Amino acid sequence: MKSIFLNWKTTVIGVLGAIAAAMLPVLESGQTDSKSLGMAAVIGLVGVLAKDGDR
């Protein structure tokens, strides 16, 4: 079984995207909600599960 972290480029991009998606509502309004946190989780999950284009 291959490790999901062999696709480190998409994992890093997904995690950075998730952090940005979670932080934007906090920076804009000072609050967060479950919708923005859920979207951040989905972005991070897609980044971890996606495969690099050069593999």
Description:
The longest helix is centred in the middle third of the chain and has 22 residues, at 8-29. The protein contains two helices and no strands. By secondary structure, it is mostly helical. The chain has helices at residues 8-29, 34-49. Helices cover 69% and strands 0% of the residues. The chain has one domain (7-49). The chain starts with 7 loop residues before the first helix and ends in a 6-residue tail after the last helix.
Share of helical residues? 55-70%
**How many individual helices?**
2
**What order do the helices and strands follow?**
HH
Radius of gyration: 13 Å
Q: Quote the average pLDDT.
A: 83
Q: How many domains?
A: 1
- Compute the separation of the termini in Å: 16 Å
Low-confidence stretches: none
| Total number of beta strands | 0
Largest sheet: none
Structural class: mainly alpha
Strand fraction equals under 5%
User: How would you describe the shape?
Assistant: elongated
Keywords:
55 residues; mainly alpha
List the helices and strands and how they pair.
Elements: H1 8-29, H2 34-49
Question: Briefly, what is this?
Answer:
With 55 residues, the protein is mainly α.
